[in-house]
Amino acid sequence: MEYPLTAARRGAVLDLLETVSGERPTIASEEPLGHQWAPVTRLTFQRELPGVGLTVVIKTRRVDGDGYGGPAYFRREQSGLATAGESRVTPRLITADDVVGVAITGDLGNWPTLEDILRGADADAATAAMIGLGRAVGRLHASTLDRATCHGAALNALGSAVTREDRLGRWPGVDRWRDVESASVEFGFPDAHVAAGDIAFIIERLLEPSPFAALIHLDLNPTNVLVTADGVRLVDFEQSTFGHIGIDAAALHYPFPNYSPHWAVLPEEVTGEADRVHRLELAAVLPSDVLAGYDEMLAIGAAAALSIRVQRLAKLTEPGQTAHDRWRRRAQLVQQIRVFEQLASRANCLPALTGWFTRLADAMTERWVDAASPPPPLFPAFQAR
Questions:
Q1: What's the pLDDT score for residue 64?
Q2: What contacts 69, CB < 8 A, 6 or more positions away?
Q3: Do the beta carbons of residue 221 and residue 329 sit within 8 Å?
Q4: For the purposes of burial, counting CB atoms within 10 Å of the CB of 26, is it exposed (0-12), middle (13-18) or buried (19 or more)?
Q5: CA 11 to centroid of chain Cα atoms
Q6: Helix/strand/coil for 99
Q7: What does the alpha-carbon distance between residue 44 and residue 48 come to, in Å, rounded to a whole number?
Q8: Which one-letter DSSP state was computed for residue 312?
Q9: I need a surface site. Which of 19, 228, 321, 325 has the fewest CB within 10 A?
Q10: Nearest-CA neighbor of 277 among 290, 294, 289?
């Protein structure tokens, strides 16, 4: 396991908790929750700690270097949870230590993930969980619309300078469009340069997202969503930043633009209901004239998310892929393009980018049979229906 809860880190955790609670905890049990590359551990104490509780969850990460799991991601987690506290849809950040590489949060308990439910057999439970996700994401956004200063201060306190470019997130996106242009020419697809103007428009909206600026999760895949008795809760804020809420909102429609392990789709009525409750949460805090721009906001976010997926054009042409991986990668891109077409059409925006994506999807399905056949499956919970 990478960066586990070592004896030294465990001791540091007890020191931190003693500082917070005023008494030294005694560990009754220790339970691993994460996986090799994202270790998470639940600690249960012999007695409840003041201001802490009976159990906590410890996330451990490396303390130097760039890339996933490094300090920049760890600081985003801390600042994101601190900013999102009033949303009540995230774990509570108790304390953290960058030097040791530990973050201590409240324990949400043992609950199924959204992935568990979508891959189950209960369509009603899966529908309710997706609607719960729309509501939770809406509450995250609605409760943090005015907290840019708070988020920036939290990052600055951790030694991370806040820049305008942070609003684009950590993943390579629309700011790497020239790579897409090069790949489109190299692999004989329609030239992506025709969409450069729309891409420039999208980048500007992402960099200056007001009035749709809030804390965004940026990694809304179903393994980061817990379905609890008190509603959906969002975990793993390592990608989070203060930016354009459309990127998160688009995840309700694709669904889950960066999720591949068990890729499947949802009935349109389910994604539509998830979108509706997301809008309702925003409607409680945004003026009606601002909310009138919701569809354009969503299309911009969907374009930003899709610009990440389309950077895999080279991957789609690689030899040696299994038949399943080849189909999934190609069909997923085509399916997401069709979703984006609908969202952009509804908003009546981004015509050049929409046109290019349409031509790309048509070219892919003409070149590769498996880009369209078999069609995307529904998540198992909806297959019987």
A1: 81
A2: 2, 3, 37, 38, 61, 62, 238
A3: no
A4: exposed
A5: 32
A6: coil
A7: 9
A8: G
A9: 19
A10: 294
Residue in the structure block whose two tokens are 């509603």:
231
Tokens standing for 103? 């973050």
Give the H/E segment covering residue 251: none
* Beta bridge partners of residue 113, listed in sequence order: 226
Q: Which of 48, 59, 114, 111 is nearest to 81 (CA)?
A: 59
pLDDT at residue 1, as a whole number: 46
Taking CB atoms within 8 Å and a gap of at least 24, the contacts of 181-188 are 183/311, 183/313, 183/314, 184/313, 184/360, 186/314, 187/313, 187/314, 187/317
CA–CA distances in Å: residue 123 to residues 131, 264, 367 = 12, 14, 35
Residue type, 123: A
| CB atoms near residue 136 (< 10 Å) | 26
The stretches in the chain having pLDDT less than 70 are 1, 385
CA 271 to chain centre: 16
Q: Please report which residue ranges of the chain form alpha helices under DSSP H.
A: 7-21, 71-83, 114-118, 123-144, 148-157, 177-186, 196-207, 246-250, 268-283, 288-291, 294-309, 313-316, 323-347, 351-367, 380-383
CA–CA gap between residue 321 and residue 326 (Å, rounded): 6
Q: What pLDDT does 170 receive?
A: 74
Instruction: Say which amino acid occupies 374.
Output: P
Tokens of 247: 């990127």
Q: What token pair was written down for 296? A: 């354009």
Residue 103 CA: distances (Å) to CA of 22, 44, 86, 194, 239? 18, 16, 19, 45, 15
H or E element that contains 31: strand 27-32
- pTM for the full model? 0.95
What tokens does 169 get? Answer: 């997130």
Structural tokens at position 279: 């809008």
Three-state secondary-structure class, residue 368: coil
Give the other-Cβ count within 10 Å of 4's Cβ. Answer: 13
Q: What pLDDT score was predicted for residue 34? A: 78
Q: Which helix (H) or strand (E) holds 97?
A: strand 93-97
Neighbours of 162 (CB within 10 A): 17
Say if residues 216 and 244 touch (Cβ distance below 8 Å). Answer: yes
Tokens of 299: 């299309």
Count other C-beta atoms under 10 Å from residue 64's C-beta: 7
